[in-house]
Amino acid sequence: MKALVLGGYGLIGAACLRALRKAGFSVTGLGRDAEAAQKVAPDDDWIIRDITKLSVDDWRRLTAEMDVVVNASGALQDGARDSLQAIHITAVERLVSALNGKPVRLVHISAVGASETAGLDFFATKGRGDAAIRQSSADWVILRPALVIGPEAYGGTALLRAAAAMPLVTPHLFPRIAIQTVFLDDVAQAVVQAATGRIPAGTLADLTEPRGRPLPDTIAMMRRWLGFPEPLATLPVPRPLLTLLAKGADALGHLGWRSPLRTNALAALADGIEGDPEPWQQAGDHSCRSFDETLAAMPATVQERWFARLYLLFPLGVGLLSLFWALSGAIGLVQLDAAAAVLTESGMAQGPARIAVLAGSVADIGLGFAILWRPWVGAACLGMVLVSLAYLAGGSLATPDLWADPLGPFVKVLPSISLALFVAAIAKDR
Prior knowledge:
Blueprint (H helix, E strand, L loop, with lengths): L1 E5 L4 H12 L3 E6 L2 H7 L4 E4 L7 H7 L5 E4 L12 H16 L5 E5 L11 H14 L4 E7 L1 E3 L6 H9 L4 E4 L5 E2 L1 E3 H12 L7 E5 L5 E2 H12 L6 E4 L2 H15 L9 H9 L6 H6 L7 H7 L4 H33 L1 H9 L5 H21 L6 H22 L14 H13 L5
Parallel strand pairs: 1-2, 1-4, 2-3, 4-5, 5-6, 6-11, 7-10, 8-13
Antiparallel strand pairs: 9-12
Protein name: Oxidoreductase
Pfam families: DoxX_3, NAD_binding_10
Keywords: Membrane, Transmembrane, Transmembrane helix
């Protein structure tokens, strides 16, 4: 049997790829990022297309020889790279139109809480996509996972790890809201069951553990799983601060950053993540594991602890590099004559000295802003390293005495290079 997995390099999509391949399917992934696809599953077949741009005829061609289509694509919030309307509704409507009347099983991954009348646009658009499928004549199964926990860390699961890794303190927020989770492997196995026809057509079921717990308890369990010591204190997080963080994360979303602190993510947590496990217990051949059982099934290693701590430090590193380079360039422009005088005192003519300072300042400011655009982070960091090395080389020739300057203007460039290399090394989120 042949299966096409949409969003095949995402957290759930990649797990579905592996599980379907293990179950004997010939699997093809579909996504818009060729680099991410090759990193996640280099030996699988891939179709590199943007699902939001595929027409009904495109879908007919892509699914012509498929027995199963698994839709694991999705987005949390509108941003520079994502449109909820296009991903959750338009693409689904076109896909369903292409599958109507065809003997192809559609396994659609939705979300607990999806509803056309939901107040949050994430759940509302998911609900409208689900409705389009339910009203069609396609052979469909809709699965709605709760908060998915797996060995891979992305989005909400990465945020949980980071919150659990905070040194000395632990955040205390939404203490009265219940959170239910589901193990990633349970989601993947449910998809295999649906793909092989063991789940009746027309099944709509939540995938969730039997009972939830408050978010602080979930974070505490994650902290123990990571092996970090008990916190010395809890840190209450006021709602106004959360709102401010969410607005800032929303703004960064327009620069391509998919922060799990965006408004939709925090609003979903504030409303609670709760589903009904009963329909799946009746339809499937296994219940979803509890959070305790999930953590026991994937022992934490040093990689987990490194990731949790680095996830906290990464945005700090990006912010510091942006501030350092943009301010450095701005100061050079504001104090152009003083900066040029350092070069003229070493024998450089006034004109070339001013040009050198101007060029350096513009480059500094450009790199300081470029690193804020998510797709350019790695390239901007490497640009910072190259400009820093050129600065050290040129400065050593023109003003070698600055190596012995008490304020260490050359020596201080070395930590900046190290920070840029560190950020570049962990910039990829797939």
